[in-house]
Design goal:
This protein has about 280 residues and is α+β, with helices and mostly antiparallel strands. About 35% of the residues lie in helices and about 20% in strands. α1 crosses α2 and α5 packs across α8.
Length: about 280
């Protein structure tokens, strides 16, 4: 059995959906289906039950899932020990400037337990660079939010968060249960400095050209709302000051939490991190 095939099986077994597993593996669904069928032929038994309702593990599939996870963990430790021997067991992780995601806390704890020999360095960036320094070579992997220009990058989705408008608590619209983007037409929205990724700027402006104060960090966004009544936007569930309210949008695409890294010259330590992050950010 090849490690690549086992990774494909684990993705399907954890997602219980070929489409989601294919997206997680950054591949199309037909070759993934063929790989799983070949694996079943190799082991001589069905590993998955396929039906119109979805995918389920057979008893043999459940056993293989446990064994495959153990083998992949062992392979990760081999990579880590080799990197340590070569003096390269350092991983620099870039985080976007909010720094409050509980998934990141769970990831840190899980990664420390499983990879204690790896020296992890952290670089936090402001909201003007959603890739957290990837293109400048300042980090090995970024734990951030999409969308942004993905040219030359591999991007793995960890979670999708619904978003809402951040308003002053005394704003009349703050009493609504939900909002549409049209409800905020003509209001000032925060802007990022010139040169910021246009896909990133467009998303946080609701896909429309807007005007408003220029900000670089989360606290500047908060203060723009408090002082000027500027419209902000944030994932639902983020803690806010008492003077602020977050009202869900009904017509805004979710904010995707992602891991991203450069396609060329990727560190072998990235893959284990991303696999642990996939579980940590979904718990």
């Amino acid at each position: 059995m090849e490690l690549r095939t086992l990774r494909s099986f684990v993705a399907v077994a954890e997602e219980l959906h070929f489409g989601r597993a294919a997206a997680r593996l950054h591949m199309s669904q037909p070759p993934l289906s063929r790989a799983i069928k070949q694996l079943e032929a190799d082991v001589g038994t069905a590993l998955l039950l396929r039906s119109s309702a979805g995918v389920a593990l057979t008893p043999a599939g459940a056993v293989l899932l446990d064994e495959a996870r153990a083998l992949l963990d062992r392979a990760d430790r081999v990579r880590e020990r080799v990197a340590t021997a070569a003096g390269a067991a350092t991983l620099t992780i870039g985080f976007l400037g909010d720094g409050t995601d509980r998934g990141a806390t769970r990831l840190a704890a899980a990664y420390r337990r499983r990879h204690p020999r790896v020296e992890v360095r952290i670089r936090e960036t402001d909201l003007t660079d959603p890739t957290c320094g990837l293109r400048a070579g300042l980090v090995d992997v970024a734990l951030t939010r999409a969308p942004f220009d993905e040219t030359g990058l591999t991007v793995h989705v960890l979670r999708a968060d619904p978003v809402g408008a951040v308003l002053r608590a005394d704003d009349p619209l703050a009493r609504r249960d939900r909002l549409e983007l049209a409800d905020l037409a003509g209001r000032p929205w925060f802007q990022f400095p010139a040169g910021t990724d246009p896909l990133w700027q467009a998303y946080w402006n609701g896909g429309e050209p807007r005007e408003g104060p220029v900000v670089r960090g989360v606290q500047e966004c908060v203060q723009a709302v408090l002082w000027n009544g500027t419209v902000g936007m944030a994932p639902l569930g983020h803690e806010m000051a008492e003077a602020l309210a977050v009202v869900p949008f009904v017509d805004m695409a979710p904010s995707r939490v992602v891991a991203a890294w450069n396609e060329a010259g990727a560190s072998p330590l990235i893959e284990p991190l991303v696999r642990i992050a996939t579980a940590a950010y979904r718990d």
